[in-house]
Amino acid sequence: MKKNILFIMNPISGTARKAGIPGLIEERLDKEKFDYSVVNTMYAGHATEIAKEAKEKGTDIVVAVGGDGTVNEVARSIVQSGTALGIIPCGSGNGLARHLMLPMDIGKAINLINRCEIHSLDYGIINDNPFFCTCGMGFDAFISMKFSEAGKRGPVTYIENVLREGLKYRPETYEVHDENGTHIHKAFLISCANASQYGNNAYIAPQASMSDGLLDVIIMEPFDVLDAPQISIDIFNKTLDKNSKIKTFRTKKLHIRRDRPGLIHYDGDPTMTGEDVDISLIGKGIKVIVNPCADKTKRQPNMMQNAFSDLFNDLHSIRMNLTKQSRHIQALNQYLLNKIK
Ligand SMILES: Nc1ncnc2c1ncn2[C@@H]1O[C@H](COP(=O)(O)OP(=O)(O)OP(=O)(O)O)[C@@H](O)[C@H]1O
């Protein structure tokens, strides 16, 4: 029997035009296997409503055609159901699609849907908000807010925001309760990862797995400008867990209390919450079309890494110049002192 698929397309995700996508679906999708329809979202939150209706009608697969925001809106409606999630990555970050190593090429992503390999994977919940990639608070929630305020989409905006705001952000104090007890952390950010990356191949939790039944918790302690180059390199080299400013552990759930209400984000979507934040993992709670040929070793850093490296190289050369200048001044002082003597 044929499976039915609903493609939910977010026309404003990412930066590329979506006009050609319905034609490509018609051309590539295996009509022997599938009946399909395509619907555009009209407003933020619409994908959640459409996907919920589709699930209630018993639709076999709902495909999110968009970025992590669209994936989140679709996926939250079909958790714990027989309806599976497909992804055609068209966003600016595409963190979940990249983690799953789905093709970024739309035609190839449709070919993968034709193969229809479905696995049950984990997802998380932060204060009643499901997330599939990462959630967090502190600097990354702040950046999510800045990004959504910016109104433009695309990696360049994201990079600009990170670079502009990153170096002035103030760390907060968090009380973290998990299965092993309570610890106080002064932190720049706390991130909980179901999948390994924020998007754009920026790896916050290089070892995170969507089928281990655990969240990877990353606590980034305050750092100064001299630590920043190494942290940025580690984010893209998938070695962040080895950095001395980073504490990582795995857990099924945790409770975080902070001094005052503040922002959290789920899959990059910012929202205000109170002092208390509950985060938990639901094991194998969502069916997802995966890439049976995924080769994790092929995950590559990208342009964002280059932008970070450029910025921090600039800072490094400024620092070197300052050091050089201060050495000149010291030498000059010494020379003058010798003269006076
Ligand atoms: N028709 C629409 N008009 C305005 N906003 C929409 C519409 N449809 C969906 N949205 C909102 O657009 C937001 C951004 O979409 P999405 O996250 O898919 O793209 P992105 O931000 O470019 O990609 P990524 O999250 O991968 O960086 C979503 O949070 C969604 O709520």
Automatic annotation (TrEMBL):
The keyword Magnesium applies. It comes from the Bacteria. Residues 1-130 form the DAGKc domain. Its cofactor is Mg(2+). It holds the Pfam family YegS_C. GO terms for molecular function: kinase activity. Keywords: ATP-binding, Kinase, Lipid biosynthesis, Lipid metabolism, Magnesium, Metal-binding, Nucleotide-binding, Phospholipid biosynthesis, Phospholipid metabolism, Transferase. This is Diacylglycerol kinase family lipid kinase.
